[in-house]
Design a protein that fits this description.
With 368 residues, the chain is α/β, with parallel strands linked by helices. Helix 3 (69-77) links the parallel strand 3 (60-64) and strand 4. The protein has helices at 14-18, 43-53, 69-77, 96-106, 123-126, 129-133, 183-189, 194-213, 219-234, 244-251, 255-272, 303-312, 325-330, 333-336, 353-364, and strands at residues 6-7, 38-40, 60-64, 81-85, 110-113, 138-142, 158-162, 173-176, 278-280, 294-298, 315-316, 342-345.
Length: 368
Amino acid sequence: MPCIEMGGNFCLTSRQIDSFSHDHIPYSRDFMGWDHVVFTHSGRSAIITAVRHLGLEGCEVLVPTFSCQSITASFLACNCKVNYYPINRDDLTVKEPELFRSIDECRPKILYTCPLFGFDTLSSLRNRYGEIQAQGVKVMEDVTHSLLSDIDSRGADVVVCSLRKWLEIPDGGFIWGLKDFDIDQFYQSYPEDIDIVKNFVEASMLKLEYLTTGNDGLKQVFLPLFYKNNELFNDTSHNCRMSSFSHNILVHADFMQVREKRRNNYHYLLTHLDNPLVEIIYNSLPEYAVPLYLQIYVHNGQRDALQQALIKERLYCPIIWHTPQPVVAKCPEETIRFHEDMLSLVIDQRYDIEDMEHLAQTINGFAH
């Protein structure tokens, strides 16, 4: 049987809830091939901690136009001046001539990059990192979208990541590449955010009950708890280490199963979506790639209408991302217009082929 709904926040399993405690577990220094990592409570705090350690507060930063508002907010929290460089519509790669022109004009100290949705959208630009670094620019690569893909990001000066996109943890991010950084001192100086963990545990208990019973009234209780955590993460003045509870879940996660499920679900949609209004951005699945979502364009201005049609079927496919207001204010409309046609189809490990069938049938039957 398909799940009663798709999408929305991850939630803990019953076993994970039963294991909840405040006991401290030593943080691992290595994670998925990254050595000497620093575990923060979010991707935002990873960026902020990295910028401060590099001594680059108040500097010029270049960020892609297609990025999350939290990225801009994190650099602004460090008093940085944020400018933007465009990406290509067809494959979301960087428009390199425009980027290098921006480097010449803005003289940034940080270039922020991010391979998108599990695909190596930086494969060409990464070959030019050395050229950029030779101009005194630190390259900060965000591997949030590509965490499980076989992509080598070690050419960057610093790597940051938010972990909550991939599995059911209350909080979590990491930093790699900080030289002369006292990791033990960081863990001693920065607390865990216990409120975020408690909210997530309580919300998970209620969402599990909802998924079992279908009692819609429970949504009025657990959704505000998830929203409250979003507010706490948005507070860029509040930086913490990753909670021990989340770290314990992370180190015991079955990432092989996560990879397999996501790739199988992506492949099913790739071969079964059939609607002339829908354009799949990545219409093949390379062996190296573990997708975050299946990203589509919806033509004729029908993106929001399709999203609403999916919601009526309890299929909650998000918009990744709404264009941040600073981008709208600074960038020519023609360079960002295509952002408004994008929709992210959920393909994560919570769901099986039956769920993908329901999603594909709903999309294929959409006509507006």
